[in-house]
Amino acid sequence: MRFTSETSSDGVCEQLFFLNEIPGVLWTPEGAAGTRPLIVMGHGGGQHKKAPDILDLARRFVTESAFAVVAVDVPGHGDRPLDEEYHRIATENQARVEAGAEPAPLIAEFHALVARQTVPEWQGVLDAVQKLDHVGAGPVGYWGVSLGCGLGVPFVAAEPRVRAAVLGLGGAAASADDAARITVPIELLVQWDDERVPRDQSLALFDALASAEKTLHANPGKHADVPVFELDSTLRFFSRHLT
Amino acid sequence: MRFTSETSSDGVCEQLFFLNEIPGVLWTPEGAAGTRPLIVMGHGGGQHKKAPDILDLARRFVTESAFAVVAVDVPGHGDRPLDEEYHRIATENQARVEAGAEPAPLIAEFHALVARQTVPEWQGVLDAVQKLDHVGAGPVGYWGVSLGCGLGVPFVAAEPRVRAAVLGLGGAAASADDAARITVPIELLVQWDDERVPRDQSLALFDALASAEKTLHANPGKHADVPVFELDSTLRFFSRHLT
Fold it and tell me: A206 and B212: CB-CB below 8 Å?
């Protein structure tokens, strides 16, 4: 793990790093020492580790809850090079959708493919970050919607250190088997008029989760219209389960 | 409005009253003076104005939010005499369910009938309570699940003083038209494995609400298994909209 920069503003320390070839960012309270809860955040499709929604929520985790937060670029995103295979598949999918194919199954299949790479990558990031003195091996949460849900479901299913997760804007198409292996508390965000994820697929993902505590929050609006009050709920959810 | 008793405990003043023949209870902070938000609470079927769930949540509204809370017995419930017509219909419905009829439409039809009486009753209670010095004409919220939802949907639709409501454990069967007239923020509680309300009816009620801000919270379990953390959410919802 190689740190390339460290800056601080308004109580939040931001460290950019590489783990092997994976570019990442770690946010912690300024002057933090000792073990604390850690949130792994997965960004959306076409986005990156410091996308505005990630950055805003990460800063809130740090300033309001004194958590650490880590995010890395998904292959082919942010500061990572174009991945030839993923790019080819994404381009083919785009053409199939323009020719009239249903996008949801194609997206789900693509997420499942990428997850085979990102699950071990994120587990390696978790190993490395938890060795740092100002993070430590505390309780871990996962937050991710859209692509971050498609990659997050297999990650949460595979990673026993994750104790609670906020997921959403994703369907069960490719991840029902993984969802059935998840037993930790989940808050699942559903946009009622999501133009990318069919409603029945969102509800099927909620059904598939094996968690005894799982709560579905549905709100009107399209894929990107998650209301601001859900961020408050997310902070409380993780405070309840990680502290 | 005739008060029949007043007691206080742990910071909560409880006043029992009659408005005409309607028995009610008003909870306010001990020593309260001046206008404050008011929550009207509707109890469940076979329950009464001081049922444990009503009492527990009312005390939290008072102690944590300094709200006033009012609840009255629904006809045929609590301290009210048996209503011959309602009793006859309920008995007939029970027999039809035992003979194999679907309970949900019968329940919905029954709620719609009772609501024609309770909507004006509750409006009268609101008139009377808001004239009291320690309540006043502040913002009003409504809370009710199960029977309290069946009667609450038409009440919230009819009563412009209600600015926000928590509803749930009820379906759209008899109340879709009323729901379509509701435009205030709603938090709707759904039990995913509700043995009394079909899931599609709960989702149809959410769909039918005309509110720009409406949020559906679904949790696993049967009709009576609403998790405790939803009470915290309810308190925050009303704080956000009434203060």
Answer: no
